[in-house]
Amino acid sequence: MTIAEDTAAAPTPAETRKPILEAKRLVKTFGRVVGLDGVSLQLYPGEVLAIIGDNGAGKSTLVKCLTGAEIPDEGQLFLDGEPISFKRPQDARAAGIETVYQNLAVSPALDVASNLFLGREVRKKGILGSLFRVVDSKGMRKMARDELTELGISTLQDVTVPVENLSGGQRQAVAVARAAAFGSKVVVLDEPTAALGVRESGQVLQLVKNLRDKGIPVILISHNMPQVFEVADRIHIQRLGKRAATITPQSHSMTDAVAIMTGARTA
């Protein structure tokens, strides 16, 4: 079953639930260039929603509008059914939406624990923390170990190791763990395996599954069709600034998805 942009369809079991994040008819233009043309999206609790599309389809613009990096010209966002608007990425983070971008935004010179709490450092209790603002390094390291264990990340045993000494997959794991630790509502992953090998890509995909198992809904932006079909529950297809369709790995093949994405067929 498909869900075309303006076509009513019978709801699947997942869609009978209330979306945790919803976008209704978002429009975003850049001068004469139309980035988004009335795009709607629904993300349900405990699912992985993949967003795919060719270059210029509006994937990045859509994600930026969902996470506060861009403000839509028209349309409305809803979080837990309540209207919400983001003026900047910090607003989305405060609402529980964490984003891991392709460049990771980790600090190579800091260790794993410090990166997990970067910008959210925990202070020591009492006067040391309140007056002298002393960071509780020991406490942060313990919480970092607990978070990594809960996510099933076994490749990072020592949270005191500088991130610059880690592999690409391990750095991605740090960024995902940070998002999971503070993304109480939604985690957005932008091309998380783009620069990784097969083995490390597999580890990151397992992290995505682990997030879903924890009940954290994930938006995954990717060009890698086999990976999308491996982990996604539903797939939102963008084409020329519009939503071409929303499909599932059960209802459509990878060939179907590419055909819809390129305009060779409709949903």
UniProtKB/TrEMBL annotation:
Q: What InterPro entries has UniProt attached to this entry?
A: AAA+_ATPase, ABC_carbohydrate_import_ATPase, ABC_transporter-like_ATP-bd, ABC_transporter-like_CS, P-loop_NTPase
Any Pfam family:
ABC_tran
Molecular-function annotations in GO: ATP binding; ATP hydrolysis activity
According to the entry, every stretch annotated as the ABC transporter domain falls at 21-265
Q: Which domain of life is it from?
A: Bacteria
**Has UniProt tagged this entry with the keyword Ribosomal protein?**
no
Q: What is this protein called?
A: Sugar ABC transporter ATP-binding protein
Q: Which UniProt keywords apply?
A: ATP-binding, Nucleotide-binding
